[in-house]
Amino acid sequence: MPATLVLCRHGQSDWNLKNLFTGWKDPGLTEKGIAEAHEAAARLKAMGIKFDIAFTSALSRAQHTTSIILEDLGQAGLETIRDQALNERDYGDLSGLNKDEARVKWGEEQVHVWRRSYDVPPPGGESLKDTAARVLPYYVYRVLPQAMAGKTVLIGAHGNSLRALIMAMEGLTGEQIVKRELDTGVPIVYHLNPDTTIASKQELKG
């Protein structure tokens, strides 16, 4: 039986709603974000998925989403490992700024480069390449061995930390992955072959 790995971006946060750069800042979920987490759990439940272990970031929006999913699946006490290696990309000086205000301050083109290039970091922050440099070793040494041991694994994390994982798992280039949009609260179910390649993939959208 192929190993099962489920990636889920956290539900909508208060700063997502306000169109702010969030990064390592720690706003909570909105009511919509909480509802998205419950919907994610319902879709996983419909597939008959039960987890053996969960991983999440050091940020509350990812932890809250993960805990809602597990609670709804009747797995509230499941071992859940929290680590900042899975944190969102650090937006540095942009953190807390409205994205439209940032465009006024630095210009549309410069903000677009910071947001959508692979290897250009914002001032004081991380590029997606930098994010991948901390996410991927954690995945390879901590998460992947659990999946390859036959466990069903949940990762509740963030748009860019999950992009870094997806880039490696699907063999995408930096240019390809920055164009990939990840919806809040939508689980992506991967079944992995014994050599860690992808046997199948399914996004559980409504």
From TrEMBL:
The record marks 158 as: Transition state stabilizer. It comes from the Bacteria. It catalyses: (2R)-2-phosphoglycerate = (2R)-3-phosphoglycerate. It holds the Pfam family His_Phos_1. Substrate binds at residues 9-16, 22-23, 61, 88-91, 99, 115-116, 159-160. Keywords: Gluconeogenesis, Glycolysis, Isomerase. The active site is at residues 10, 88. Pathway: Carbohydrate degradation; glycolysis; pyruvate from D-glyceraldehyde 3-phosphate: step 3/5. InterPro entries: His_Pase_superF_clade-1, His_PPase_superfam, PG/BPGM_mutase_AS, Phosphogly_mut1. Its EC number is 5.4.2.11. Belongs to the phosphoglycerate mutase family. BPG-dependent PGAM subfamily. NCBIfam families: pgm_1, PRK01295.1. PANTHER family: PHOSPHOGLYCERATE MUTASE (PTHR11931). Catalyzes the interconversion of 2-phosphoglycerate and 3-phosphoglycerate. Homodimer. This is 2,3-bisphosphoglycerate-dependent phosphoglycerate mutase. The lineage of its organism: Bacteria, Pseudomonadati, Pseudomonadota, Alphaproteobacteria, Hyphomicrobiales.
